[in-house]
User: Which sequence fits this backbone?
């Protein structure tokens, strides 16, 4: 945005009342309480042991979205800023996806314990 | 483009950023981007001297097969210090933080960057990180600059400095993020009327692409180093295999930043070279949009290829193939740049001065560095060449021979603007040639060494005495290069005190920084400049009295 163009779009940032911010904060605290509750609940009783992690991640995502939208004012900002925000999340997804794919691929190839070569050398030392 | 509507008829302005205010505090707490840029420059050059001393220690150690001056442990610490200093304290901040801070706002016709206080904070943070980093390195760290696990987690080695070094690198990273953010906002918000994206000088495109990488990638290294600190102190079992951790995961984390970091080093240098080649051949840049887009393409591709550093780490075959394929794609935008620079030179009126010699040296060296990268992208040859001197030669051709020579070219190009004095041109040419010849002597021999099987990071090579001749030539080359650097320091310092006064536009550049006086006034421009085609040199003519270029009387300024 050049100087000439920016005059049209320059404006004071969107103002949010303290009451509203306290309300958002209360929602976040409530969701934190939900996370704590989830961490203490034994989901293996209902045969879904992974549910705890899934719910915790879901709550964390909701909280991050609320922080982005309201505390970071993305809800009222230009779409371009939102695009940048989502773009940076895509980078995180890309990184984690490739790194995890790699980990899953090579895990089966890892030799547990000492390799045969090491075992043989250790045996020789013992004798 | 970028031309002041008012002719440069008032070069005798005495008030400038160097003398506007006086005293050390007026510098240390300045909000002026030019002063901050100069402070970065001084610190980066001091770090370069230190890193260079470590480099010479390495070279002299390897003069004979059984080593000369260092023990094996000392050698490990010296190459770690050399790598860490050169990467974190020299090459990464050199062009963006030092030259970028000085030039970027002036190129935009702005009075300063978007957030001057944040800019000063970045510099202080950088200095704090630098001190932390250097003090810690003195404590003895021998992991190499990559801090690979599990060795870096080993608490029995007595490496007391590793956690402070990691904290130092963490702090330096924050400085880099703030600078990147500042540049992105500055380029978005402070362009003058008429300077659309495709009327920006290519240096700004390169700086913008670099800033994107700084902002997106640097947080990852911050988190990685923090995790490493936590792993080493508390033992959370994320990277340490003894606790169920995964050392390959560390490498993923590390290279997700550190490969894009290579582009933080090279992209701004490419931007500098685009300016050098065009200005000093007095010819319109060829393929402007292609060069601009290729900067963004390199920045984007740079995020997708980190795994090519891990072909022999235990990374899975599937990912090896994927990363190998993507890595080849980086060569396309890189080649686009090289071909466009060559096309710019074609039928140009080439001034073979020091900046241009550095520009040409960049193209020559970067081409070799880029092409030898293809051997590393190819899985079969990468496995053979891994951890050999071939790798050392390759990344020095790219990181030192390209990025640093681009930086030196930029210093020479903008020195008259920064200091307001001209340096001795003949000394500049001799120095540039010495650096170029010395560099190739030093590192081309290392390609041969590596292809013949000399491993990197060995303090001695008693079993391989046939390699000595290459090491001797390499050490002689490093000495020649060092002489070139010392000569450069001498004539640049000499110019500060005894140099001829620089005109506003000594080279015939068209971008806005050449339209204000040398050195620039405190607030850069008295009035908002208007812009035209920043690579159209036909509107300028040589003024023998001023020993510089000025606007032709028979040509109207943009906007008139």
Assistant:
């Amino acid at each position: 945005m050049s100087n000439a163009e920016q005059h049209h779009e320059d404006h004071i940032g969107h103002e949010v009342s303290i009451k509203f911010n306290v309300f958002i904060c209360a929602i976040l605290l409530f969701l934190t309480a939900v996370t704590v509750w989830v961490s203490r609940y034994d989901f293996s009783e209902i045969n879904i042991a992974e549910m705890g992690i899934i719910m915790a991640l879901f709550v964390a995502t909701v909280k991050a979205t609320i922080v982005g939208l309201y505390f970071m004012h993305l809800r009222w900002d230009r779409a371009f800023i939102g695009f940048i925000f989502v773009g940076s999340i895509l980078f995180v997804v890309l990184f984690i996806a490739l790194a995890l794919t790699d980990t899953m691929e090579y895990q089966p190839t890892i030799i547990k314990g000492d390799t045969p070569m090491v075992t043989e050398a250790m045996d020789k030392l013992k004798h | 483009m970028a031309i002041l509507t008012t002719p440069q008829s008032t070069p005798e302005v005495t008030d400038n950023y160097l003398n506007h205010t006086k005293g050390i505090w007026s510098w240390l707490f300045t909000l002026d981007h030019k002063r901050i840029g100069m402070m970065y420059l001084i610190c980066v050059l001091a770090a370069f001297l230190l890193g260079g001393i470590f480099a010479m220690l390495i070279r002299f150690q390897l003069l004979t097969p059984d080593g000369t001056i260092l023990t094996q442990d000392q050698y490990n610490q010296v190459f770690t210090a050399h790598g860490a200093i050169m990467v974190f304290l020299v090459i990464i901040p050199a062009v963006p933080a030092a030259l970028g801070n000085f030039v970027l706002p002036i190129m935009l016709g702005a009075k300063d960057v978007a957030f001057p206080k944040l800019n000063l904070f970045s510099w202080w943070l950088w200095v704090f990180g630098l001190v932390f980093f250097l003090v810690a390195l003195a404590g003895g760290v021998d992991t190499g600059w990559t801090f690979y696990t599990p060795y870096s987690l080993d608490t029995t080695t007595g490496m007391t400095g590793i956690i402070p070094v990691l904290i130092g690198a963490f702090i330096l990273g924050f400085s880099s993020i703030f600078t990147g953010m500042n540049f992105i906002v500055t380029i978005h918000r402070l362009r003058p009327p008429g300077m659309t994206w495709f009327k920006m000088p290519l240096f700004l495109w390169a700086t913008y692409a670099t800033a994107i990488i700084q902002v997106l990638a640097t947080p990852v290294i911050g988190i990685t180093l923090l995790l490493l600190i936590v792993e080493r102190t508390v033992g959370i079992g994320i990277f340490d295999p003894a606790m169920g951790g995964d050392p390959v995961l560390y490498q993923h984390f590390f290279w997700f930043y550190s490969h894009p970091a290579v582009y933080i080093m090279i992209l701004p240098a490419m931007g500098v070279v685009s300016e050098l080649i065009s200005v000093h051949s007095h010819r319109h840049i060829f393929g402007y949009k292609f060069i601009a887009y290729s900067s963004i393409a390199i920045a984007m591709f740079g995020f997708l290829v980190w795994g090519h550093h891990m072909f022999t780490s235990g990374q899975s075959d599937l990912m090896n193939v994927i990363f190998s394929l993507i890595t080849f794609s980086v060569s396309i935008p890189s080649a686009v740049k090289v071909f466009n620079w060559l096309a710019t030179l074609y039928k140009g009126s080439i001034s073979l001065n020091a900046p241009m010699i550095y520009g040409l040296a960049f193209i020559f060296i970067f081409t070799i560095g880029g092409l030898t990268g293809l051997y590393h992208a190819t899985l079969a040859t990468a496995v053979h060449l891994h951890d050999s001197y071939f790798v050392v030669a390759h990344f020095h051709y790219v990181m030192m021979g390209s990025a640093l020579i681009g930086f030196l070219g930029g210093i020479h190009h903008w020195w008259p603007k920064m200091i307001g004095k001209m340096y001795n041109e003949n000394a500049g040419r001799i120095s540039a040639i010495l650096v170029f010849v010395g560099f190739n002597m030093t590192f081309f021999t290392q390609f041969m060494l590596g292809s013949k099987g000399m491993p990197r990071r060995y303090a001695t090579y008693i079993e391989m005495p046939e390699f000595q001749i290459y090491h001797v030539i390499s050490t002689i080359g490093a000495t020649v290069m060092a002489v070139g650097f010392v000569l450069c320091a001498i004539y640049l310092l000499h110019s500060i005190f005894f140099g001829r006064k620089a005109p506003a536009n000594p080279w015939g550049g068209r971008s806005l920084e050449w339209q204000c006086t040398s050195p620039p006034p405190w607030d850069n421009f008295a009035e908002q400049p208007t812009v035209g085609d920043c690579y159209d040199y036909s509107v300028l003519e040589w003024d023998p009295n001023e020993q510089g270029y000025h606007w032709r009387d028979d040509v109207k300024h943009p906007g008139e």
Remarks:
- Chain A touches chain B at residues 1-4, 6, 88, 91, 94-95, 98-99, 101-103, 105-106, 109 (CB under 8 Å).
- Residues 78-127 of chain A form one domain.
- Chain A has two domains: 1-77, 78-127.
